[in-house]
# Entry
Amino acid sequence: MILQIFFIVLGLIIGSFLNVCIYRLPKEESVVTPGSHCVKCNKPIKWFDNIPVLSFFILRGKCRGCKEKISKRYPLVESLSALVFSSYYNIFGLGIEMIFFSIFTSGLIVAAFSDWETRLIPDEVSLGILPLGIVFSFFNPVFQEAYSQNPLVVSLIGALTGALMIYLTGVLGKLVFKKEAMGFGDVKFMALIGAFLGYKLVILSYFIAPFFALSYGVYRKIRYKDDYLPYGPFLAIAAVFVLFFREKILDVIFYL
Ligand SMILES: [Zn+2]
# Structure
């Protein structure tokens, strides 16, 4: 119980840091200095106005100084991060699996929201966390149950497969639609997913992502009548979906 609360609080604090990463990494700003400040009036945010989730509601979503609206992304990412850390503690228990999958999922969160807001997936996330997936391969429970090869090979081929699939999709998309369909950010991002999920599950994520993207794309078309559709968030959702439902999905595929 105490640990459960600890991981909710830790998740909230890390979520707050992920928000800084989402805002600053695409701009190539430091995530350490300067301290938190309002993006409009530049006033430093005092500690009591910087409490995850809570401060957003106390301030009613506005900066104390200039009343500029604070993005709903802040409490959203903080809650999401708290949910990840506390539920991963429940699922994986206290140990190396929980740590690595939490870092992986935190990376997915930063990539998804950066891509959503700026259409950029920072290299610090994809290339920065990828080596951890390779190191983790020896302890990765997914590799032990779904693959028979050496875990290091599964992870490396996974990264390569992910990158190659998105790269080829981009090349094909350019031929067919005569415009840039996939950015290089997506290529590196899918390499990260492959390093943590291995080649079979990264292929699975690749084929599942369009279902999420398509449902949102249709909604977007009806609601806003535009085609805004960064692909990173849907790759991230698909990766988490595959991580948790891999057995059920594979059962269904082999049953057909
Ligand atoms: Zn302000």
